Predict the structure.
Amino acid sequence: MILRADNAARLGMLGVVLLAVAYLGGPFVGSVVEHKTFLESLPRNRGPFAVRMALLALAFIGFALVGAARSLGWALATIGILVAALMPLYTGRAAGKVNAVHIVAASTWLGTLLVLMLIGIRGVIRSATAGQQRAELIADLVNSFSPIALGASALVALTGLTTAWMHLKRLSALWTTSYGIALMIKLVLVLIVVTLGAWNWRRVRPTLGDEGSEHTIRRSARLELTFAALVLIATSVLVTLPSPR
């Protein structure tokens, strides 16, 4: 099997660790800046925080079980990740609810693309499969990914614009505040990612199945993920800035 479940599960375990670090990073930075202990910097209502960390632990266990019990492992991982990421839908304010959906949609789009490139396409290219058959296998993988990417990217755009407007409050804040300027930089990078995705879908995808086309989609997917990484860096800067008043 080219798209190995255990390899995808390892990526999932890494993602859970990074997500846990992201959730713990805010309280840790707060404890350093405000000269408090880590426990003092945690949210006053620690129940949801503890539940979220427990769900991430469940997801990690699920990914670890994929090799031995695939169905159970994927089920536990899916429940842990989705419920943890979407907790603001039933515990947060309106902005938090929209942002939770935004994060899940972006993770679905770019995370699936990462797995497709690092495990799917890379695995096929490194296999001993003949050239034409190899190209057809990659075409099947990309065609299966495309509906997910289209749906998730549309949701990313809708929730992203909604979140931006809720934080900006006025259009002039785009060029008169540090938050607005950082947001414009992020939007430019997002536009590049969307453009590359559209190019892959409209121009590169139809050529798949021809011998040699697998290298073209690999290069274009790598470029798309590179700019996606820049979007994440821009986002990490953006969230440290105060929203316009």
